[in-house]
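Structure in, sequence out. Go:
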Protein backbone atom coordinates (compact mmCIF):
# COMPACT_ATOMS: atom_id res chain seq x y z
CA UNK A 1 0.00 0.00 0.00
CA UNK A 2 1.35 3.45 -0.92
CA UNK A 3 1.45 6.77 0.91
CA UNK A 4 -1.47 8.11 -1.06
CA UNK A 5 -3.78 5.38 0.16
CA UNK A 6 -2.61 5.70 3.75
CA UNK A 7 -3.22 9.42 3.80
CA UNK A 8 -6.61 8.88 2.20
CA UNK A 9 -7.60 6.62 5.11
CA UNK A 10 -6.40 9.17 7.63
CA UNK A 11 -8.16 12.02 5.83
CA UNK A 12 -11.43 10.14 5.58
CA UNK A 13 -11.43 9.23 9.26
CA UNK A 14 -10.43 12.77 10.18
CA UNK A 15 -13.17 14.41 8.12
CA UNK A 16 -15.74 11.93 9.38
CA UNK A 17 -15.07 12.39 13.07
CA UNK A 18 -13.78 15.93 13.44
CA UNK A 19 -17.16 17.54 12.87
CA UNK A 20 -18.14 16.78 16.47
CA UNK A 21 -14.97 18.19 18.00
CA UNK A 22 -16.72 20.38 20.56
CA UNK A 23 -19.28 17.83 21.74
CA UNK A 24 -19.51 14.41 23.31
CA UNK A 25 -20.34 11.44 21.11
CA UNK A 26 -23.83 9.97 21.38
CA UNK A 27 -24.43 6.23 21.23
CA UNK A 28 -25.88 6.50 17.73
CA UNK A 29 -22.86 8.55 16.59
CA UNK A 30 -20.47 5.97 18.01
CA UNK A 31 -22.28 3.25 16.09
CA UNK A 32 -22.22 5.29 12.91
CA UNK A 33 -18.54 6.15 13.16
CA UNK A 34 -17.70 2.58 14.09
CA UNK A 35 -19.43 1.32 10.96
CA UNK A 36 -17.48 3.79 8.85
CA UNK A 37 -14.14 2.74 10.34
CA UNK A 38 -15.15 -0.90 9.83
CA UNK A 39 -15.99 -0.19 6.19
CA UNK A 40 -12.53 1.29 5.64
CA UNK A 41 -10.80 -1.69 7.25
CA UNK A 42 -12.97 -4.17 5.32
CA UNK A 43 -12.36 -2.31 2.08
CA UNK A 44 -8.60 -2.11 2.51
CA UNK A 45 -7.66 -5.31 4.32
CA UNK A 46 -8.19 -9.00 3.70
CA UNK A 47 -10.80 -10.45 6.03
CA UNK A 48 -9.99 -13.99 7.10
CA UNK A 49 -11.91 -16.57 5.07
CA UNK A 50 -11.24 -19.70 7.09
CA UNK A 51 -14.45 -21.19 8.58
CA UNK A 52 -12.65 -22.77 11.53
CA UNK A 53 -10.91 -19.56 12.59
CA UNK A 54 -13.81 -17.20 11.92
CA UNK A 55 -16.55 -19.27 13.53
CA UNK A 56 -14.43 -20.40 16.49
CA UNK A 57 -13.35 -16.84 17.26
CA UNK A 58 -17.00 -15.81 17.07
CA UNK A 59 -17.89 -18.45 19.65
CA UNK A 60 -15.28 -17.00 22.00
CA UNK A 61 -16.73 -13.55 21.38
CA UNK A 62 -20.28 -14.77 22.08
CA UNK A 63 -19.23 -16.47 25.32
CA UNK A 64 -17.62 -13.24 26.53
CA UNK A 65 -20.47 -11.06 25.28
CA UNK A 66 -23.09 -13.11 27.11
CA UNK A 67 -21.78 -11.97 30.47
CA UNK A 68 -20.05 -8.66 29.67
CA UNK A 69 -23.06 -6.27 29.64
CA UNK A 70 -21.71 -4.38 26.66
CA UNK A 71 -23.12 -0.99 25.55
CA UNK A 72 -23.09 -2.17 21.90
CA UNK A 73 -23.39 -5.49 20.11
CA UNK A 74 -19.76 -6.43 19.42
CA UNK A 75 -18.62 -7.01 15.84
CA UNK A 76 -15.45 -9.12 15.85
CA UNK A 77 -13.50 -9.21 12.59
CA UNK A 78 -10.48 -11.41 11.91
CA UNK A 79 -7.96 -9.74 9.61
CA UNK A 80 -5.57 -11.86 7.53
CA UNK A 81 -2.21 -10.41 8.53
CA UNK A 82 1.10 -11.58 9.96
CA UNK A 83 1.09 -8.53 12.21
CA UNK A 84 0.43 -9.42 15.86
CA UNK A 85 -2.29 -6.89 16.53
CA UNK A 86 -5.66 -6.24 18.13
CA UNK A 87 -7.65 -3.08 18.60
CA UNK A 88 -11.15 -1.87 19.36
CA UNK A 89 -12.77 1.21 17.94
CA UNK A 90 -15.96 3.14 18.65
CA UNK A 91 -19.36 1.52 18.24
CA UNK A 92 -18.38 -1.98 19.35
CA UNK A 93 -15.96 -3.02 16.60
CA UNK A 94 -13.01 -5.27 17.49
CA UNK A 95 -10.26 -6.36 15.07
CA UNK A 96 -7.90 -9.29 15.67
CA UNK A 97 -5.22 -10.47 13.25
CA UNK A 98 -4.45 -14.07 12.36
CA UNK A 99 -0.89 -13.23 13.38
CA UNK A 100 -2.05 -12.64 16.94
CA UNK A 101 -4.07 -15.86 16.96
CA UNK A 102 -1.01 -17.73 15.73
CA UNK A 103 1.02 -16.48 18.71
CA UNK A 104 -1.51 -17.75 21.28
CA UNK A 105 -0.62 -21.11 22.76
CA UNK A 106 -3.96 -21.51 24.52
CA UNK A 107 -7.53 -20.37 23.96
CA UNK A 108 -7.60 -18.43 27.22
CA UNK A 109 -4.85 -16.15 25.88
CA UNK A 110 -6.93 -15.23 22.84
CA UNK A 111 -10.02 -14.85 25.02
CA UNK A 112 -8.03 -12.61 27.36
CA UNK A 113 -6.98 -10.32 24.51
CA UNK A 114 -10.56 -10.14 23.17
CA UNK A 115 -11.91 -9.47 26.66
CA UNK A 116 -9.35 -6.69 27.09
CA UNK A 117 -10.67 -5.06 23.91
CA UNK A 118 -14.23 -5.55 25.17
CA UNK A 119 -13.27 -3.59 28.27
CA UNK A 120 -11.97 -0.67 26.19
CA UNK A 121 -15.36 -0.51 24.47
CA UNK A 122 -17.34 -0.96 27.67
CA UNK A 123 -15.47 1.84 29.42
CA UNK A 124 -15.62 4.03 26.28
CA UNK A 125 -11.88 4.72 26.40
CA UNK A 126 -11.51 5.52 22.71
CA UNK A 127 -14.74 7.53 22.57
CA UNK A 128 -13.68 9.62 25.57
CA UNK A 129 -10.32 10.36 24.00
CA UNK A 130 -12.00 11.32 20.75
CA UNK A 131 -14.17 13.75 22.69
CA UNK A 132 -11.13 15.39 24.28
CA UNK A 133 -8.47 15.21 21.54
CA UNK A 134 -10.18 14.46 18.27
CA UNK A 135 -7.36 15.35 15.94
CA UNK A 136 -4.83 13.24 17.85
CA UNK A 137 -7.09 10.27 18.27
CA UNK A 138 -8.26 10.25 14.69
CA UNK A 139 -4.63 10.03 13.64
CA UNK A 140 -4.19 7.20 16.12
CA UNK A 141 -7.11 5.26 14.63
CA UNK A 142 -5.77 5.82 11.13
CA UNK A 143 -2.34 4.60 12.26
CA UNK A 144 -3.88 1.47 13.76
CA UNK A 145 -5.62 0.75 10.47
CA UNK A 146 -2.48 1.47 8.43
CA UNK A 147 -0.25 -0.48 10.81
CA UNK A 148 -2.44 -3.54 10.44
CA UNK A 149 -2.74 -3.31 6.68
CA UNK A 150 0.76 -2.30 5.57
CA UNK A 151 3.83 -4.47 5.49
CA UNK A 152 6.11 -2.34 3.34
CA UNK A 153 8.63 0.24 4.53
CA UNK A 154 6.39 3.16 3.72
CA UNK A 155 3.63 1.76 5.89
CA UNK A 156 6.05 0.95 8.69
CA UNK A 157 7.39 4.51 8.66
CA UNK A 158 3.90 5.94 8.96
CA UNK A 159 3.00 3.50 11.72
CA UNK A 160 6.18 4.27 13.65
CA UNK A 161 5.61 8.00 13.51
CA UNK A 162 2.00 7.56 14.53
CA UNK A 163 2.84 5.28 17.44
CA UNK A 164 5.42 7.73 18.77
CA UNK A 165 2.92 10.56 18.53
CA UNK A 166 0.25 8.50 20.23
CA UNK A 167 2.63 7.52 23.02
CA UNK A 168 3.67 11.08 23.72
CA UNK A 169 0.13 12.40 23.75
CA UNK A 170 -1.67 9.63 25.64
CA UNK A 171 0.41 9.40 28.84
CA UNK A 172 -2.14 11.30 30.90
CA UNK A 173 -4.94 8.84 30.23
CA UNK A 174 -3.52 5.68 28.74
CA UNK A 175 -2.02 4.09 31.83
CA UNK A 176 -5.34 4.43 33.61
CA UNK A 177 -7.20 3.13 30.58
CA UNK A 178 -4.99 0.07 30.25
CA UNK A 179 -5.14 -0.77 33.94
CA UNK A 180 -8.93 -0.42 33.88
CA UNK A 181 -9.15 -2.57 30.75
CA UNK A 182 -6.92 -5.22 32.36
CA UNK A 183 -9.10 -5.29 35.46
CA UNK A 184 -12.44 -5.28 33.64
CA UNK A 185 -11.28 -7.57 30.83
CA UNK A 186 -9.83 -10.18 33.18
CA UNK A 187 -13.08 -10.16 35.17
CA UNK A 188 -15.09 -10.68 31.96
CA UNK A 189 -12.82 -13.55 30.89
CA UNK A 190 -13.01 -15.17 34.32
CA UNK A 191 -16.81 -14.99 34.45
CA UNK A 192 -16.94 -16.52 30.98
CA UNK A 193 -14.92 -19.52 32.18
CA UNK A 194 -11.51 -18.57 30.81
CA UNK A 195 -9.93 -17.51 34.08
CA UNK A 196 -8.45 -14.08 34.64
CA UNK A 197 -4.87 -14.73 33.55
CA UNK A 198 -5.19 -15.02 29.76
CA UNK A 199 -3.98 -11.50 29.03
CA UNK A 200 -1.12 -11.85 31.54
CA UNK A 201 -0.03 -15.09 29.88
CA UNK A 202 -0.09 -13.41 26.48
CA UNK A 203 1.93 -10.44 27.79
CA UNK A 204 4.54 -12.85 29.14
CA UNK A 205 4.83 -14.55 25.77
CA UNK A 206 5.34 -11.27 23.97
CA UNK A 207 8.02 -10.32 26.45
CA UNK A 208 9.78 -13.64 25.76
CA UNK A 209 9.53 -14.08 22.01
CA UNK A 210 11.33 -11.07 20.74
CA UNK A 211 10.38 -7.60 21.86
CA UNK A 212 8.42 -4.74 20.44
CA UNK A 213 8.15 -5.91 16.84
CA UNK A 214 5.59 -8.50 17.98
CA UNK A 215 3.61 -6.23 20.27
CA UNK A 216 0.03 -5.13 19.52
CA UNK A 217 -0.59 -1.42 19.18
CA UNK A 218 -2.05 -1.09 22.65
CA UNK A 219 1.19 -2.46 24.07
CA UNK A 220 3.50 -0.47 21.82
CA UNK A 221 2.02 2.75 23.15
CA UNK A 222 2.16 1.60 26.77
CA UNK A 223 5.45 -0.22 27.44
CA UNK A 224 4.95 -1.12 31.08
CA UNK A 225 3.54 -4.61 30.72
CA UNK A 226 5.75 -6.11 33.48
CA UNK A 227 3.80 -4.27 36.17
CA UNK A 228 0.56 -5.23 34.47
CA UNK A 229 1.51 -8.92 34.58
CA UNK A 230 2.27 -8.71 38.29
CA UNK A 231 -0.99 -6.89 39.00
CA UNK A 232 -3.04 -9.45 37.11
CA UNK A 233 -1.33 -12.40 38.77
CA UNK A 234 -2.01 -10.85 42.17
CA UNK A 235 -5.65 -10.32 41.21
CA UNK A 236 -6.20 -13.92 40.10
CA UNK A 237 -3.98 -16.22 42.22
CA UNK A 238 -6.39 -19.18 41.97
CA UNK A 239 -7.88 -18.51 38.53
CA UNK A 240 -8.90 -21.60 36.57
CA UNK A 241 -10.20 -22.32 33.08
CA UNK A 242 -13.53 -24.14 33.26
CA UNK A 243 -14.67 -24.17 29.61
CA UNK A 244 -13.68 -26.84 27.10
CA UNK A 245 -10.80 -25.53 25.00
CA UNK A 246 -9.80 -28.85 23.39
CA UNK A 247 -10.51 -27.67 19.84
CA UNK A 248 -8.30 -24.59 19.94
CA UNK A 249 -5.03 -26.40 19.01
CA UNK A 250 -6.60 -27.39 15.68
CA UNK A 251 -7.64 -23.79 15.04
CA UNK A 252 -4.12 -22.70 15.92
CA UNK A 253 -2.69 -25.08 13.31
CA UNK A 254 -4.85 -23.43 10.65
CA UNK A 255 -3.80 -19.95 11.74
CA UNK A 256 -0.14 -20.93 11.49
CA UNK A 257 -0.48 -22.82 8.23
CA UNK A 258 -2.89 -20.71 6.22
CA UNK A 259 -2.00 -17.38 7.77
CA UNK A 260 1.70 -18.09 7.18
CA UNK A 261 2.40 -16.61 10.59
CA UNK A 262 5.93 -17.95 10.73
CA UNK A 263 6.84 -17.81 7.07
CA UNK A 264 6.99 -20.27 4.18
CA UNK A 265 8.69 -23.07 6.12
CA UNK A 266 5.59 -23.92 8.12
CA UNK A 267 4.67 -26.91 5.92
CA UNK A 268 7.97 -28.59 6.76
CA UNK A 269 7.76 -27.71 10.46
CA UNK A 270 4.30 -29.25 10.83
CA UNK A 271 5.20 -32.32 8.81
CA UNK A 272 8.31 -32.93 10.93
CA UNK A 273 6.25 -32.69 14.10
CA UNK A 274 3.99 -35.41 12.77
CA UNK A 275 6.95 -37.60 11.85
CA UNK A 276 8.28 -37.27 15.40
CA UNK A 277 4.93 -38.02 17.05
CA UNK A 278 2.37 -39.67 14.79
CA UNK A 279 0.06 -40.39 17.70
CA UNK A 280 -0.62 -36.75 18.47
CA UNK A 281 -3.98 -35.89 16.85
CA UNK A 282 -3.08 -32.22 16.35
CA UNK A 283 0.14 -33.19 14.55
CA UNK A 284 -1.79 -35.66 12.43
CA UNK A 285 -4.39 -33.09 11.46
CA UNK A 286 -1.66 -30.60 10.56
CA UNK A 287 0.10 -33.15 8.36
CA UNK A 288 -3.15 -34.04 6.62
CA UNK A 289 -3.75 -30.36 5.83
CA UNK A 290 -0.27 -30.03 4.36
CA UNK A 291 -0.72 -33.13 2.22
CA UNK A 292 -4.19 -32.05 1.09
CA UNK A 293 -2.81 -28.68 0.05
CA UNK A 294 -0.18 -30.44 -2.05
CA UNK A 295 -2.78 -32.54 -3.84
CA UNK A 296 -1.87 -35.76 -2.02
CA UNK A 297 -5.49 -36.58 -1.25
CA UNK A 298 -5.14 -40.31 -0.52
CA UNK A 299 -2.33 -39.78 2.00
CA UNK A 300 -4.23 -36.94 3.66
CA UNK A 301 -7.42 -38.99 3.96
CA UNK A 302 -5.52 -42.00 5.29
CA UNK A 303 -4.00 -39.95 8.10
CA UNK A 304 -7.26 -38.37 9.27
CA UNK A 305 -9.03 -41.73 9.04
CA UNK A 306 -6.86 -42.93 11.90
CA UNK A 307 -6.80 -39.79 14.08
CA UNK A 308 -7.64 -40.57 17.69
CA UNK A 309 -9.85 -37.53 18.18
CA UNK A 310 -13.54 -36.82 18.78
CA UNK A 311 -13.31 -34.56 15.71
CA UNK A 312 -12.17 -37.32 13.37
CA UNK A 313 -15.37 -37.32 11.27
CA UNK A 314 -15.16 -33.54 10.84
CA UNK A 315 -11.55 -33.72 9.63
CA UNK A 316 -12.24 -36.73 7.43
CA UNK A 317 -15.19 -34.95 5.84
CA UNK A 318 -13.03 -31.89 5.22
CA UNK A 319 -10.32 -33.88 3.43
CA UNK A 320 -12.92 -35.74 1.37
CA UNK A 321 -14.47 -32.44 0.29
CA UNK A 322 -11.01 -31.15 -0.63
CA UNK A 323 -10.53 -34.30 -2.72
CA UNK A 324 -13.95 -33.81 -4.43
CA UNK A 325 -15.12 -37.16 -3.05
CA UNK A 326 -18.47 -35.66 -2.19
CA UNK A 327 -20.61 -38.76 -1.59
CA UNK A 328 -18.09 -40.07 0.94
CA UNK A 329 -17.91 -36.61 2.54
CA UNK A 330 -21.69 -36.55 2.97
CA UNK A 331 -21.56 -39.86 4.83
CA UNK A 332 -18.78 -38.58 7.10
CA UNK A 333 -20.45 -35.25 7.86
CA UNK A 334 -24.16 -36.10 7.83
CA UNK A 335 -24.42 -36.25 11.64
CA UNK A 336 -22.20 -33.24 12.32
CA UNK A 337 -23.79 -30.69 14.66
CA UNK A 338 -21.21 -27.89 14.67
CA UNK A 339 -21.47 -25.06 12.10
CA UNK A 340 -18.14 -25.81 10.42
CA UNK A 341 -19.19 -29.41 9.82
CA UNK A 342 -22.56 -28.27 8.48
CA UNK A 343 -20.85 -25.79 6.15
CA UNK A 344 -18.58 -28.52 4.80
CA UNK A 345 -21.62 -30.77 4.42
CA UNK A 346 -23.33 -28.07 2.35
CA UNK A 347 -20.26 -27.90 0.11
CA UNK A 348 -20.40 -31.68 -0.30
CA UNK A 349 -24.10 -31.56 -1.25
CA UNK A 350 -23.42 -28.76 -3.72
CA UNK A 351 -20.49 -30.65 -5.21
CA UNK A 352 -22.63 -33.77 -5.63
CA UNK A 353 -25.27 -31.75 -7.48
CA UNK A 354 -27.86 -31.72 -4.69
CA UNK A 355 -28.48 -27.98 -4.51
CA UNK A 356 -31.70 -28.34 -2.51
CA UNK A 357 -29.93 -30.08 0.36
CA UNK A 358 -27.04 -27.62 0.12
CA UNK A 359 -29.46 -24.72 0.59
CA UNK A 360 -31.32 -26.44 3.42
CA UNK A 361 -28.04 -27.13 5.22
CA UNK A 362 -26.73 -23.58 4.77
CA UNK A 363 -30.01 -22.03 5.96
CA UNK A 364 -29.67 -23.99 9.20
CA UNK A 365 -26.40 -22.15 9.93
CA UNK A 366 -27.29 -18.76 8.44
CA UNK A 367 -27.09 -17.21 11.93
CA UNK A 368 -23.31 -17.70 11.66
CA UNK A 369 -23.19 -15.60 8.51
CA UNK A 370 -22.00 -12.52 10.36
CA UNK A 371 -19.01 -14.51 11.64
CA UNK A 372 -18.37 -16.28 8.35
CA UNK A 373 -19.96 -14.31 5.48
CA UNK A 374 -19.05 -17.02 2.95
CA UNK A 375 -22.18 -18.83 4.19
CA UNK A 376 -24.30 -15.95 2.89
CA UNK A 377 -22.35 -15.70 -0.36
CA UNK A 378 -22.71 -19.40 -1.10
CA UNK A 379 -26.44 -19.26 -0.35
CA UNK A 380 -26.88 -16.32 -2.69
CA UNK A 381 -24.98 -17.98 -5.52
CA UNK A 382 -26.78 -21.32 -5.21
CA UNK A 383 -30.25 -19.74 -4.99
CA UNK A 384 -29.48 -17.63 -8.05
CA UNK A 385 -28.39 -20.69 -10.02
CA UNK A 386 -31.60 -22.43 -8.98
CA UNK A 387 -33.60 -19.59 -10.51
CA UNK A 388 -34.68 -17.91 -7.25
CA UNK A 389 -33.14 -14.56 -8.11
CA UNK A 390 -34.89 -12.73 -5.29
CA UNK A 391 -33.23 -14.82 -2.59
CA UNK A 392 -30.03 -14.90 -4.60
CA UNK A 393 -29.74 -11.11 -4.58
CA UNK A 394 -30.94 -10.87 -0.96
CA UNK A 395 -28.25 -13.20 0.36
CA UNK A 396 -25.60 -11.52 -1.73
CA UNK A 397 -26.76 -8.22 -0.23
CA UNK A 398 -26.44 -9.69 3.25
CA UNK A 399 -22.97 -10.93 2.37
CA UNK A 400 -21.78 -7.50 1.23
CA UNK A 401 -23.38 -5.88 4.27
CA UNK A 402 -21.41 -8.23 6.55
CA UNK A 403 -18.27 -7.38 4.57
CA UNK A 404 -18.75 -3.62 4.99
CA UNK A 405 -19.34 -3.08 1.24
CA UNK A 406 -22.45 -0.95 1.67
CA UNK A 407 -22.88 0.18 -1.94
CA UNK A 408 -22.78 -3.39 -3.20
CA UNK A 409 -25.16 -4.47 -0.43
CA UNK A 410 -27.62 -1.75 -1.40
CA UNK A 411 -27.39 -2.62 -5.08
CA UNK A 412 -28.18 -6.29 -4.44
CA UNK A 413 -30.98 -5.46 -2.02
CA UNK A 414 -32.60 -3.23 -4.63
CA UNK A 415 -32.41 -6.06 -7.17
CA UNK A 416 -33.95 -8.45 -4.60
CA UNK A 417 -36.88 -6.05 -4.01
CA UNK A 418 -37.43 -5.82 -7.75
CA UNK A 419 -37.49 -9.63 -8.03
CA UNK A 420 -39.75 -10.11 -4.99
CA UNK A 421 -42.18 -7.34 -5.92
CA UNK A 422 -42.38 -4.10 -3.96
CA UNK A 423 -45.49 -5.10 -1.98
CA UNK A 424 -44.32 -8.59 -0.99
CA UNK A 425 -43.46 -9.69 2.53
CA UNK A 426 -39.93 -10.58 1.41
CA UNK A 427 -39.41 -7.12 -0.04
CA UNK A 428 -40.54 -5.60 3.25
CA UNK A 429 -37.88 -7.58 5.11
CA UNK A 430 -35.20 -6.43 2.69
CA UNK A 431 -36.35 -2.79 2.98
CA UNK A 432 -36.04 -3.01 6.75
CA UNK A 433 -32.46 -4.17 6.25
CA UNK A 434 -31.82 -1.23 3.97
CA UNK A 435 -33.37 1.17 6.49
CA UNK A 436 -30.80 0.02 9.05
CA UNK A 437 -27.97 1.04 6.71
CA UNK A 438 -26.48 4.48 6.66
CA UNK A 439 -26.80 6.57 3.51
CA UNK A 440 -22.99 6.76 3.35
CA UNK A 441 -21.50 4.95 0.37
CA UNK A 442 -18.31 3.03 0.72
CA UNK A 443 -15.37 3.99 -1.47
CA UNK A 444 -14.80 1.68 -4.40
CA UNK A 445 -11.51 -0.11 -4.72
Amino acid sequence: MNHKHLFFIALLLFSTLLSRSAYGLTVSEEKKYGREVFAEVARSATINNDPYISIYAQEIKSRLEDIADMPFPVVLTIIESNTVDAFATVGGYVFITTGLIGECDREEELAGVVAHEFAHIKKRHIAKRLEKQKFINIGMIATLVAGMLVGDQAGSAVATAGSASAQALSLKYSREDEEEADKEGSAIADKAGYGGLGIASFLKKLRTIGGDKFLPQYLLTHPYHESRIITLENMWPDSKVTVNTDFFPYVLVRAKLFGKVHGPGMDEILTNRYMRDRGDPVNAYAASLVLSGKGKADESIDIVSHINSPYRHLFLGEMLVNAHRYDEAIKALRDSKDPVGRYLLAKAYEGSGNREMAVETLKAIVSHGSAYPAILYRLGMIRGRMGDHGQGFEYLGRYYLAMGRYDLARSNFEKAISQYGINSHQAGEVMRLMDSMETKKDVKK
